[in-house]
Amino acid sequence: MGVQVVPGRLTAAITGQGSALPPAMSQQGLWDGFFRAHYADHRLARTVWRHSGITTRRGVVDPTREDISSWGTGARMRRFVTEAMPLGREAVGKALAAAGLDPSEVGLFTVVSCTGYATPGLDILLARDLGMSDRTQRLHVGHMGCYAALPGLGAAGDFVVARQRPAVLLCLELTSLHVQPAPVGEPTAADLQQMVAHALFADAAAAVVLEPGGPGLEVVDAVARTDVSTADHMTWDVTDLGFAMGLSPKVPDVLAVHVRPVVEELLGRHGLAIGDVEGWAVHPGGRRIVEVVGAALGLSDDQTAASYAVLDEVGNCSSATVLLVLERLMGSPGGWVVAMAFGPGLTLCAVLLRRR
């Protein structure tokens, strides 16, 4: 997966970024106005909300105004397209403008999402509305979860290097469409895990433009590690009532085992050590996730500040989140940057980038 530096060869560089967020929702307001009653003021739900590390979340559906927990999956998918189109147009439009690129110049348009599906998909509909060429190649990356932005970035970067043409990557997730029905009786283990998901996840669209050569954030290399023995720790199941998440409390412990060896493998291939990295875009799956990664890598509060800020101000927006963190680091001075994200598998992906 990903682009690796070879002397004398061009590499792909991020030359533009853009994002689009739906309306803000108060985390406390969501609890007071909907989820407190939804979970019968359950002790665990209260605790999760209190320690979520989130002040504000973004969502196309505000459950305090519109309860869709009884909707079928078909209705949720139709709503997905309606809500996703303007967000996708805005995020990609901003990224293209930042790169100074016309939509007709895009060679590959990659769309990542695990929260909604349609055929024709967002890749076709957005390419049409944005004015991309009918010869633009398209790629859809689906149901990989929170880490999907990084394999998407690797695939888009490979295209740029191989074809010497620009590519656009869009991550668009609308988790608010998947509020599940209230538990009947005492919550089961699955219900308890869903409580955590409902307390953390939010909606966003984030896009990047990659081009061959030139100034930008160069995609240098990528690495992935999947621990299949813990595949049941994080799940995302299609049900008759939308998509339901399983999220084991053991996830941070698994990441604690793997994160340092994975990062050292990535850096070691280029003669680098953790101390050589100036920017860290860590996917904030939750406060505990960032804490574990920071401790394993010996990162300072300043180095994880962008991750905590995105979690606090936006929430966990699945695949779009690591791009939102990376967007906050784009204005920093030159140097090495590592982006990492985690998801079903359990899978850890990391990408090495360099400002030039």
Please render the helix and strand layout as text.
Elements: E1 12-20, E2 24-26, H1 27-38, H2 43-50, E3 56-58, H3 73-99, E4 108-113, H4 122-130, E5 137-142, H5 149-163, E6 167-174, H6 189-200, E7 203-212, E8 217-226, E9 234-239, E10 242-247, H7 251-268, E11 277-282, H8 287-297, H9 301-313, H10 321-329, E12 336-343, E13 347-355
Parallel strand pairs: 4-5, 4-6, 11-12
Antiparallel strand pairs: 1-7, 1-8, 2-3, 6-7, 8-13, 9-10, 12-13
Helix pairs in contact: 2-6, 3-4, 7-8, 9-10
3D architecture notes:
By secondary structure, the protein is an alpha+beta fold. It has two domains: 12-212, Peroxisomal Thiolase, Chain A, domain 1 (3-Layer(aba) Sandwich); 217-355, Peroxisomal Thiolase, Chain A, domain 1 (3-Layer(aba) Sandwich), CATH 3.40.47. 38% of the residues lie in helices and 25% in strands. It has helices at residues 27-38, 43-50, 73-99, 122-130, 149-163, 189-200, 251-268, 287-297, 301-313, 321-329; strands spanning 12-20, 24-26, 56-58, 108-113, 137-142, 167-174, 203-212, 217-226, 234-239, 242-247, 277-282, 336-343, 347-355. The chain has a nine-stranded mixed β-sheet, sandwiched between helices. α4 (122-130) links the parallel β4 (108-113) and β5 (137-142). The longest helix is centred in the N-terminal third of the chain and has 27 residues, at 73-99. It is globular and about 60 Å long. Mean pLDDT is 94; it is low at 1-8.
